[in-house]
Protein backbone atom coordinates (compact mmCIF):
# COMPACT_ATOMS: atom_id res chain seq x y z
CA UNK A 1 0.00 0.00 0.00
CA UNK A 2 1.36 3.41 -0.89
CA UNK A 3 1.68 6.17 1.64
CA UNK A 4 1.36 9.82 0.90
CA UNK A 5 -0.04 13.07 2.13
CA UNK A 6 -3.25 15.00 1.58
CA UNK A 7 -6.31 13.26 0.16
CA UNK A 8 -4.73 9.93 1.20
CA UNK A 9 -2.88 9.67 -2.08
CA UNK A 10 -1.30 12.92 -3.22
CA UNK A 11 0.10 16.14 -1.90
CA UNK A 12 -0.56 18.97 -4.30
CA UNK A 13 0.59 22.54 -4.24
CA UNK A 14 -1.07 25.68 -5.51
CA UNK A 15 -0.21 26.51 -9.12
CA UNK A 16 2.31 29.24 -9.78
CA UNK A 17 1.18 31.52 -12.58
CA UNK A 18 4.78 32.03 -13.73
CA UNK A 19 5.65 28.34 -14.24
CA UNK A 20 4.84 27.16 -17.77
CA UNK A 21 3.06 23.83 -18.10
CA UNK A 22 6.27 22.23 -19.32
CA UNK A 23 7.91 22.91 -15.94
CA UNK A 24 5.57 20.74 -13.91
CA UNK A 25 6.99 18.06 -11.65
CA UNK A 26 6.08 15.27 -9.26
CA UNK A 27 8.32 13.69 -6.63
CA UNK A 28 7.98 10.03 -5.66
CA UNK A 29 9.82 8.75 -2.60
CA UNK A 30 10.45 5.01 -2.80
CA UNK A 31 10.96 3.61 0.67
CA UNK A 32 9.47 0.70 2.57
CA UNK A 33 10.11 2.34 5.95
CA UNK A 34 8.65 5.71 4.93
CA UNK A 35 5.62 4.00 3.38
CA UNK A 36 5.02 2.16 6.67
CA UNK A 37 5.37 5.42 8.62
CA UNK A 38 8.46 4.18 10.48
CA UNK A 39 10.73 6.89 9.11
CA UNK A 40 10.14 10.48 8.08
CA UNK A 41 10.70 11.26 4.39
CA UNK A 42 13.52 13.78 4.18
CA UNK A 43 14.61 13.22 0.57
CA UNK A 44 11.30 13.93 -1.17
CA UNK A 45 10.80 17.36 0.44
CA UNK A 46 14.46 18.27 -0.18
CA UNK A 47 14.14 17.40 -3.88
CA UNK A 48 10.82 19.24 -4.16
CA UNK A 49 12.43 22.36 -2.69
CA UNK A 50 15.28 22.29 -5.24
CA UNK A 51 12.75 21.91 -8.06
CA UNK A 52 10.68 24.84 -6.80
CA UNK A 53 13.77 27.01 -6.52
CA UNK A 54 14.58 26.12 -10.14
CA UNK A 55 11.16 27.33 -11.31
CA UNK A 56 9.27 24.04 -11.41
CA UNK A 57 5.72 23.77 -10.16
CA UNK A 58 5.70 20.66 -7.99
CA UNK A 59 2.19 19.36 -8.56
CA UNK A 60 2.36 16.28 -6.33
CA UNK A 61 4.47 14.17 -4.02
CA UNK A 62 3.91 10.55 -3.08
CA UNK A 63 5.55 7.86 -0.98
CA UNK A 64 5.46 4.27 -2.24
CA UNK A 65 7.13 1.11 -0.94
CA UNK A 66 9.95 -0.65 -2.75
CA UNK A 67 7.49 -2.56 -4.92
CA UNK A 68 7.93 -2.57 -8.69
CA UNK A 69 4.23 -2.49 -9.60
CA UNK A 70 3.45 0.34 -7.19
CA UNK A 71 6.39 2.35 -8.52
CA UNK A 72 5.30 1.72 -12.12
CA UNK A 73 1.70 2.70 -11.34
CA UNK A 74 2.80 5.96 -9.71
CA UNK A 75 5.09 6.79 -12.64
CA UNK A 76 2.41 6.15 -15.27
CA UNK A 77 -0.18 8.10 -13.26
CA UNK A 78 2.06 11.14 -12.83
CA UNK A 79 3.16 11.06 -16.49
CA UNK A 80 -0.42 12.05 -17.36
CA UNK A 81 -0.22 15.10 -15.10
CA UNK A 82 3.37 16.39 -15.24
CA UNK A 83 6.34 16.56 -17.56
CA UNK A 84 9.11 15.80 -15.04
CA UNK A 85 8.91 12.95 -12.52
CA UNK A 86 11.67 12.54 -9.98
CA UNK A 87 12.02 9.47 -7.80
CA UNK A 88 14.23 9.26 -4.75
CA UNK A 89 15.25 5.93 -3.26
CA UNK A 90 15.48 2.34 -4.38
CA UNK A 91 18.49 2.84 -6.67
CA UNK A 92 21.09 0.87 -4.73
CA UNK A 93 22.05 -2.78 -4.88
CA UNK A 94 19.93 -4.21 -2.05
CA UNK A 95 17.39 -6.87 -2.99
CA UNK A 96 14.41 -4.47 -2.56
CA UNK A 97 16.03 -1.66 -4.62
CA UNK A 98 13.89 -1.97 -7.77
CA UNK A 99 13.29 1.64 -8.83
CA UNK A 100 15.52 1.47 -11.95
CA UNK A 101 13.84 -1.73 -13.17
CA UNK A 102 10.37 -0.29 -12.53
CA UNK A 103 11.33 2.87 -14.42
CA UNK A 104 12.81 0.96 -17.35
CA UNK A 105 9.66 -1.17 -17.57
CA UNK A 106 7.47 1.84 -18.42
CA UNK A 107 9.94 3.97 -20.39
CA UNK A 108 9.92 4.26 -24.17
CA UNK A 109 13.59 5.30 -24.23
CA UNK A 110 16.43 5.73 -21.76
CA UNK A 111 18.68 8.77 -21.62
CA UNK A 112 21.89 7.20 -20.39
CA UNK A 113 23.93 10.41 -20.40
CA UNK A 114 21.94 12.01 -17.61
CA UNK A 115 22.44 9.09 -15.22
CA UNK A 116 26.09 8.86 -16.28
CA UNK A 117 26.58 12.54 -15.48
CA UNK A 118 25.05 12.08 -12.00
CA UNK A 119 27.41 9.19 -11.24
CA UNK A 120 30.44 10.97 -12.69
CA UNK A 121 29.89 14.09 -10.61
CA UNK A 122 28.85 12.06 -7.57
CA UNK A 123 32.09 10.08 -7.72
CA UNK A 124 33.99 13.33 -7.12
CA UNK A 125 32.37 13.46 -3.66
CA UNK A 126 32.00 9.79 -2.71
CA UNK A 127 33.15 6.48 -4.15
CA UNK A 128 29.69 5.08 -3.26
CA UNK A 129 28.23 6.92 -6.27
CA UNK A 130 29.36 3.95 -8.34
CA UNK A 131 26.78 1.82 -6.51
CA UNK A 132 23.86 3.94 -7.66
CA UNK A 133 21.85 2.33 -10.45
CA UNK A 134 19.46 5.22 -11.11
CA UNK A 135 18.27 5.75 -14.68
CA UNK A 136 16.65 8.52 -16.67
CA UNK A 137 14.03 7.79 -19.27
CA UNK A 138 11.09 9.00 -21.31
CA UNK A 139 7.48 7.91 -20.94
CA UNK A 140 5.33 9.60 -23.60
CA UNK A 141 6.22 13.31 -23.15
CA UNK A 142 7.44 13.00 -19.58
CA UNK A 143 10.98 12.69 -18.34
CA UNK A 144 11.62 10.37 -15.39
CA UNK A 145 14.74 10.67 -13.25
CA UNK A 146 15.83 8.27 -10.48
CA UNK A 147 17.82 9.81 -7.62
CA UNK A 148 19.51 8.16 -4.63
CA UNK A 149 17.56 7.84 -1.38
CA UNK A 150 19.73 9.94 0.91
CA UNK A 151 18.71 13.62 1.06
CA UNK A 152 22.23 14.80 0.29
CA UNK A 153 22.76 12.31 -2.55
CA UNK A 154 19.36 13.10 -4.05
CA UNK A 155 19.86 16.87 -3.98
CA UNK A 156 23.45 16.74 -5.25
CA UNK A 157 22.51 14.36 -8.07
CA UNK A 158 19.58 16.53 -9.14
CA UNK A 159 21.65 19.70 -9.05
CA UNK A 160 24.29 18.33 -11.45
CA UNK A 161 21.72 17.59 -14.16
CA UNK A 162 19.08 20.24 -13.52
CA UNK A 163 20.45 22.54 -16.21
CA UNK A 164 19.68 19.87 -18.84
CA UNK A 165 16.07 19.25 -17.86
CA UNK A 166 14.26 22.27 -19.39
CA UNK A 167 15.92 21.64 -22.76
CA UNK A 168 15.08 17.93 -22.62
CA UNK A 169 11.45 18.78 -21.79
CA UNK A 170 11.30 21.21 -24.71
CA UNK A 171 12.56 18.50 -27.04
CA UNK A 172 9.92 16.09 -25.74
CA UNK A 173 7.25 18.73 -26.43
CA UNK A 174 8.41 18.81 -30.05
CA UNK A 175 10.37 22.06 -29.91
CA UNK A 176 13.34 20.83 -31.94
CA UNK A 177 14.31 23.95 -33.87
CA UNK A 178 17.94 24.99 -33.54
CA UNK A 179 18.93 28.59 -32.95
Explain what this protein looks like in three dimensions.
- By secondary structure, the protein is of the alpha/beta class.
- It has one domain: 3-Layer(aba) Sandwich (Molybdenum Cofactor Biosythetic Enzyme, Chain A), CATH 3.40.980.
- Helices cover 38% and strands 19% of the residues.
- The protein has seven helices and seven strands; from the N terminus they run E-E-H-H-E-H-E-H-E-H-E-E-H-H.
- The longest helix has 14 residues, at 68-81.
Give the key terms:
seven-stranded mixed β-sheet, Molybdenum Cofactor Biosythetic Enzyme, Chain A, 179 residues, 7 strands, disordered N terminus
Number of strands: 7
Count of helical stretches = 7
Structural class: alpha/beta
Broad CATH class = Alpha Beta
What is the CATH topology descriptor? Molybdenum Cofactor Biosythetic Enzyme, Chain A
Kindly state the mean pLDDT as a whole number? 90
Amino acid sequence: MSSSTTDASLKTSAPKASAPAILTAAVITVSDSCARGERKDLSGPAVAEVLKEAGFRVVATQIVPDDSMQIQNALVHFAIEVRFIVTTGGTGIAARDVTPEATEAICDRLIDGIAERMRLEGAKKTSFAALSRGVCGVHDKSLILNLPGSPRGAVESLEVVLDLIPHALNLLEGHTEHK
